[in-house]
Every structure is written in C-alpha cells, then in structure tokens.
Task: structure prediction
Amino acid sequence: MEPTETTTVPKRHWRWYHPKCLVVIVCTVLAAWLVVAYVVLPLAWQEYAQRHPGLDNVSGVTLTKDGIPGDPLNVALVGDEARVKAVMQAARWNVADPLGFRSDVKIAADTVLHRSYADAPVSNLYLFGRKEDLAFEQPVGNDPRRRHHVRFWRAEKTDSAGRPLFLGAVTFDQRVGLSHDTGQITHHIAPDVDTERDHLMRTLADTGSVADTCYVDDFHKIRAGHNGGGDPWHTDGRLAVATLTEPP
Result:
C-alpha cells in the first residue's frame, strides 16, 4: 500500500500593521475609552461626592423657624464662599436682599404694580441649626411673584483638600398666596424641584466655571412631601453636586 501524500497548509503570520489587526486595535482602544469616560470616571466622581465629609449625616429637608419641614435639599457646590458668589453671579443669579421692613414694602408694591425686583429677599429656612448662609434669585420677566431662587448652607466639614461644601435648596416660586400651614403671606413653589435643580446646574455649566457635575443617587429616601408653606414637592431622590473650578 503506497503512502498517502498529505498537503501542509502554511501558517499565517499576522503583523500588527495588517489591516485586520489595525481594526482590532482601534476597536479595543475605542471600547476602553468608552468604558473609562462613561462608566469609570462618572462612578469615581459620584464616589467622591458621596464621601465628602460635608454630606455626612445631613438631613434631606430644611426647616422653618417654627420647626416645620421646609424645602428639600437638591444641589451642592464644592468651593469656597467667594468662588460660589462669583460663579453664581456669573450665571446671572442675583444676591437676594436681606429681609427687613424696607424690602418687604418694596416687594409688596412691586408685586401689585408688576415691577421687577431682581434681588428680592427670600424667607429664612434652617439647616445645621442656622439660617441660610447665602441666597440668590433669578427673576422671570417683570413679575416678582415668579422667580427661581436658591438658599445655601455651608457644611460643617471640608474635604481632604480643605474645600467646603455648600448644600442648597433651589425651587421655583410660581405665585404669591397664603401659607397653608400658618396663614402668612408667602411664595408658593412649583412641585417639581428636579426641574429647578437641573436649571441651576445648566446655568452654572454655561459659565465654564464648573470642573465637573455628578449626582448622588438615593440622597432622598422619602421622595415627596410638603414645605413650610404647605406646597407639595417631589423628586427623583438625586442630589446634584457641582465642583467649581479654581479662580483664574
């Protein structure tokens, strides 16, 4: 029986510069970038925000002077007070006037006459046992009854870099009326506080002075309630945290 002749197939040796190898390399690098940019880094920023000492043992809702639950916290800024003021004003948020007889009379007159009051005062709310450290507002047209406004409280702790955290409650005043709880004259807020949270974050981002923004999930365990004026509010439970850039 004669031996059978077999055919040997030569092995292919791929070079890195072979077109198919280049496609594999490019796809691998692209996949790695997508994972890092859209998964790893966002999770890293979220972990940073969650571990900022200023967020330790923080109540999710402010209080009125009488101890009634007020507006929910929904934003936070990482940066010192001077930087917070500068960036907020660059985003066209005005520093609110302090409460007093003169400002009370002015806002009452401007409400009746439909005149703009771009830096009208806001009522005091309390966190950490004290009223807000900073308050800003953004008017809507010439009607002082409608406005965006936010209060900030400096947290008691700073991070490892010495940067403070300012916790804020931003809401939209949609009309003036009587408080459902006390009967006093007050602004009534729109119930969707997440819309205001996102509005504030957009205006800050437009200044180019935000290094990064992340969201702390499940910051609010209870996601609906009523504020000191008896107005209902609801949220998806997330706290937006914006880290401000250092001043130029």
Observations:
- The radius of gyration is 27 Å.
- The chain has a mean pLDDT of 80.
- The chain is about 30% helix and 30% strand.
- The chain has one domain: 52-244.
